[in-house]
User: What shape does this take?
Amino acid sequence: MTDSPKRRRNPMATIMFGSRWLQLPLYLGLIVAQAVYVFQFWTELVHLVEAAFGNQEALKLLVDSVGYKAGVAGVGVAKLNETIIMLAVLALIDVVMISNLLIMVIVGGYETFVSRLHLEGHPDQPEWLDHVNASVLKVKLATAIIGISSIHLLKTFINVQNLQEQTLIWQTVIHLAFLLSALAIAMTDKLLSHGPTEKH
Assistant: This one.
């Protein structure tokens, strides 16, 4: 009668495999970061609503947070305008997209590198979690980063009169670099995933 695989496991292998639990505090830390983003979202939303009702202090805080400046130097913004609203809403969308990115890293990373979540059959299980692995996670993260970069670039174009031309050029170049990186990751993943099947 042979020993079970559990009994024959090398102690060093057990220690090394168990070291994956050292990542648990990292994922718990990301959950805390998620809570900070939730607080940031509601703070910005409250400022937007209060500014819409004429609260000058909230308007000042909102204008400072989105980086909007009035056309005449030294003159503050008297009331909420369409540009400020668009910048504020884009900032809120930005927070949501980064929060989504955090969820992908927390759930997908934990499932891939630490331990199974055993969510099979759960009505709220994310569809992508069924086939998540390191490669899929990288592609999804790259796609999410492109979305976040797009929001930042849109905010820049809306607020272009308050930014230097060099800043606009560099943000565009960085966004293109993200696009090329995501394409390279997707192509590499496709080549690696098809490689083994073609050999059989």
Q: What stands out?
A: The mean pLDDT is 80.
